[in-house]
Amino acid sequence: MVTVDRRTLLKAGVTATAAGALGMTTTGTATAAVPVSAIHPTSDWGARPATGTIVVENHKPTYIVVHHAVDPPMNDDFSLARAYYVSRFIQNLHMDKNGWIDSGQQFTNSRGGFITEGRHRSLEILRGGTQHVLGANVGNHNSEVIGIENEGLYSTVDVPPALWNSLVSLVAYIASQYGIAPEFIKGHRDFNSTECPGQVLYNRLPELRTAVGRVLGVAVTRAEAEWPLLKPGDAGRKVQLAQQFLRASGFDVPTDGVFGKSTKDAVAVLSAQAGLARHTCTATKVTDETGFLGADVWPLIVPSDRSTAAWRADLARA
């Protein structure tokens, strides 16, 4: 249980009511905390039963990962009923299209600021603070992450204030339960070659880390550079470096710094050869992400003469 004062919460952009809803107590003039059950469990929104065993791993997650849900198309219905509808929509999509046993993410955050449990047992296990429900929201890293789907598409528009406040509150609660430092709050693209959680929301992750740090009363160390995401149509020094690395890996691509069709095709072939799973984030319904070059592709092409951290830092400056 985390105890923070009302002033700290307000500085972080979080209301005392929102913090209480996530099981945090407040001091000073704040009202009594709302039980953590205000994170609406699967039974509240009419979730389908899981079609397989919910795996509970006997360790804590390392990262908290932010997604944007993309579907259903966002609108200005900020009601609790809408939050329940979104949860059902995502579960149906994940089970019927992706073939998963349940919702892939552990929690869902609506544009109205309502938080629901995604995968069954996620709320129960989070409250325990020592184990982790295995989800299906970050390719090849699900054992390490706890994921939050945020209703909406945030490639070009910003999140509503209610969603932002509830996101800060939920992430702070998860971080407090598992002892996760704010530096380990990540976006989906920090692991896979995907647009998710959208450029606008991704750009706000440093702000999210700072806000969560304020709620928890901890200093926030600057996060290490991440692998850049390159997409068809991009141009510049990063693209040119990627092309040089691809050529060194045996692909016949130009080194003109323009991410054209041949570069896209080379990345797609390389990804298939390496057995990288196609990312099933619903962002792919808006943009074809085939051939995107991101966090899981760069390590396949950069020279081995330096560390991952060094390459990421150099690419950030390129």
TrEMBL record:
SUPFAM superfamilies: N-acetylmuramoyl-L-alanine amidase-like (SSF55846), PGBD-like (SSF47090)
Keyword match Iron-sulfur: no
GO terms for biological process, alphabetical: peptidoglycan catabolic process
Domain of life (superkingdom): Bacteria
Keywords carried by this UniProt record: Signal
Ranges of residues in domain N-acetylmuramoyl-L-alanine amidase: 58-199
Domain Peptidoglycan binding-like: 237-276
Signal peptide segment: 1-32
Stated name of the protein: Negative regulator of beta-lactamase
Organism for this UniProt entry: Amycolatopsis rifamycinica
Taxon lineage: Bacteria, Bacillati, Actinomycetota, Actinomycetes, Pseudonocardiales
